Amino acid sequence: MTEYAIIVAGGKGTRIKSAVPKQFLPLLGKPILLHTLEAFHRYSPQVNIILVLPEDDFPRWRELAAQHGYRAPIVLQRGGDTRFQSVRQGLAKIDGDGLVAIHDGVRPLVSADIIGASFRLAAVHQSAVAAVRLKESIRMTDQDNTKAMDRSRFRLIQTPQTFHVNLIKRAYEIKEDASLTDDASVAERAGHVISLFEGSYENIKITTPEDLIIAAALLNARPQT
Fold first, then answer.
1. How far apart are CA 139 and CA 147, in angstroms?
2. Which residues contact 18 (CB under 8 A, 6 or more apart)?
């Protein structure tokens, strides 16, 4: 089956306290987004990549790509005002069926093994969503009380979230609302069962300043290729 990857990179850098959108911040000398794209190329040079950015960021991306000698073929797509709208815009660039991995542009440490597993499992189960077990105790709170919860029943959800193209395209025809925080929640709202698979604790999403430090340390610890 034809494999696609939609890389969603519409962050503004607010929580990381940066005037530069976080996907363009340097990580060991390269923009975070470039690390992410290279991870998908390492998985397979044949994967069809659709990069979804705010239109105002197109010139910045082209400048950085030229600066770092990035010439791999990608499809550039204008994003929407929300992640939901940006993913839907990315899906519109896919003609025909296949498998599509939807991934956060600021998860640069995703491995080829995780990407490959997502495609293999989605081919069988129609969906494959990376997730990891909780390491710490959790409590549920309301205004007045807290209650201990069984952490073994919960998972932290990551990306890639991979689906049959036609399934996730139909799912994104539903009405958007704020509770739909990822692609799995959209597919579930549309009536589909979500299959999880084991992700990686290294597959962090860079959101706050300390995440950049952790990502740099993890990359430095990887074997050089």
1. 5
2. 25
Q: What is the mean pLDDT of each run of 10 residues along the chain (225 residues)?
A: 96 68 95 98 97 96 96 95 96 96 98 98 98 97 93 97 98 96 98 98 96 97 80
Q: Contact, 169 vs 95, CB < 8 A?
A: no
In angstroms, the CA 153 to CA 150 distance is 6
Total domains in the chain come to 1
| pTM exceeding 0.85 | yes
- For residues 129 and 159, what is the distance between their CA atoms, to the nearest angstrom? 7
CA distance 19 to 145: 39
Structural domain boundaries, residue 119: 3-221
